[in-house]
Amino acid sequence: METFYLFLVIFLFVLAVFDLSVGVSNDAVNFLNSAIGSRAASFKTIMVIAAIGIFVGASLSNGMMDIARHGIYQPQHFFFSEIMCILLAVMLTDVVLLDIFNSLGMPTSTTVSLVFELLGGTVALSLVKIANSNGALQLGDLLNTDKAFTVILAIFLSVAIAFFFGSVVQYISRLIFTFNYKKHTKYFIALFGGLAATSILYFMLIKGLKESSFMTGNLKELIYGNTSMVVWGAFIFFTILMQILHWLKVNVFKIIVMLGTFALALAFAGNDLVNFIGVPLVGYSSYMDLMAQGGTTTTDTFLMGSLLAPAQTPWYFLVGSGLVMVIALATSKKAHNVVKTSLDLSRQSEGNESFGTSPVARMLVRTCNNASSTILSVVPPKVKDWIDSRFNNDEIILEDKASFDLVRASVNVVLSGLLIALGTSLKLPLSTTYVAFMVAMGSSLADRAWGRESAVYRITGVLSVIGGWFITAGAAFTICFLVAIVIHFGGIAAMAAMVGLAVYMLIRSQIAYKKKMKKEALKEEVNTTVAKLRDTTDSREALSLFREHSREELQSVLLFTADALDRSVHGFMNENLRELRKVLNEIEEKKIHLKQVKRVGTLGVTHLEHDIAVEKGLYYYQGNDFASEIIFSVRRLTEPSKEHVDNNFSPLNDIQKEDFSKMTESIITYLKRCAVMIETNDYHRLDDVIVESVSLTNQLTALKKGELKRIQGQSGSTKVSMVYLNMVQEAQNVVSFTANLVKVSRKFQKE
């Protein structure tokens, strides 16, 4: 039995590697958001600084491991086999749950997920033990209920406090520096920089390194016994240093943002490492304690009182974890996806919003608008004008492609660090995710980044993320509770089944994520064109960009249509329901993409000269409409085919199959020829394409007539004939719309 548990401990460490990479993907938003959003440095530089912070923090971590050893359960009342059951349930739940949130691009708290998983697993085993103890044990004997309530309280507090202080501090900072911050730096930058750098140092010492393994008793006494002297000394030193750097033309805000990024990454790795490797380390420690008994006890009789002792984590586990986290940060696309959600909700400009609207968001916007109007009515006009002048973002200084400026980025990192340090000193288990995200949201609100056109979308997004946090807690508790029960009563067979299920879910999640990334790539393509059009001031260059974009999109639609038509027709003929469903899903995605492409048209027209805009804009919209009609025709062809196969109706007869297969091949060749014509922008053989479209239309009409004769002769199934006639008609529509598309494209591209 001991050999089986050895394999189980090894498996826990394998899961920990997954958990580390998944956890870094999720928590990357905490320390990357400000630096990436403000473009404080190149992406590689930001990642290197964050990676160093993570590695140092992980290597020095140790003190927080006790939460997994005895923070939630009372280990002296649990046998070795029961502890291992809880630990396996926690790790399986944690990996799958965090991966789901990352794939959705939603930041969540690894601290809360770990605590509630431990809580769920412990409650499950506790109820079993209480039921078998004949009243000897109570829930309070087996569970640390105070810890769970403290975490729940901290969730509510951290969300509200971080948002409030993020708004207030950013509002004051913007009043001081304005959006044209370089104009006002000579008066305040030394004080601001000194305060910020001192705050970051304080945060690193209090939150980041307080429980680190290198912090000996003497060093702790020296630092924490003279905290005020250390802080004042640091403030004076950093204030002088920042003034000197400013005189040397160094952008102090960039220094602050990068320092803050390093500090947040260090604190994240140092304090949140327990969320990822704490559970496997408890399993390892428990197994070593069992082996130390020399066979005098069994897995079902050995009580785990040894877990009450403080954790002594071997250094190689910490260094190894740091390496895994650094590699995960550098390679994880999901980390970039989670950062994108936070940046979308806090960017200064309007754009393609990631979230829709909701009734709650609409109500909040109305309430805030009314409250704002009431407050403004009593504010003296001169004060109002002065405030408006400080918030005039016409002169905003933004780095290339930045979501917000360096002033807001500095406030985000400094305030996040200070609030987390404050929470630690008050013994409140604040989540780095909650604080960092809500400070960013509060500062973006204060910066007037949520305008009337975007507020309802941004609030919906924030509510979605906050809702996701609470769902994390509930889901973590419930899933881990059920998994622990199944493993406890099912034994080794249940463990194997649960491991298999978790692996299967992770693979499914990866496949789903890859599909989502394909959609994101299409969105990014559109957004890149929008950015280029927005940046250009030359109307000729705008027209050239506009034309290039149109060629790429129309060619893409025709190639997509050729592929979808081919798969749809053969899927129907081979009665392949799965293929037909896939085609329909892809058609829906293409429809959404074409809607976004229309946005580019609206923006593109505004950058053209008036006369050209009227003429070329009309052709662009016509081309887009024909492209949409082609996609709709393929959908109208595929839907009845899918329904027919789904209902197991009779298939096409051999004559119908042969006739339509030949026509499909001809139509696909025609579509590809048109795509090449648009791509190369060479329309000298347009007349041949028109002749070919007429020929194809006539052939399809002949197929319809032939089928109508068969219906009259009452040969074959009526249902099959209806679907067949629909396919022929929609294929005819594809041919005629494509001919119109090519004609309009030529007019649009013509000089």
UniProtKB/TrEMBL annotation:
It comes from the Bacteria. GO terms for biological process: phosphate ion transmembrane transport. Residues 570-600 form a coiled coil. The chain crosses the membrane at residues 6-24, 45-65, 77-98, 110-128, 148-166, 187-209, 229-248, 255-278, 313-331, 462-485, 491-507. GO terms for cellular component: membrane. Keywords: Coiled coil, Membrane, Phosphate transport, Transmembrane, Transmembrane helix, Transport. One of its GO terms (molecular function) is phosphate transmembrane transporter activity. This is Phosphate transporter. It comes from Parabacteroides goldsteinii DSM 19448 = WAL 12034.
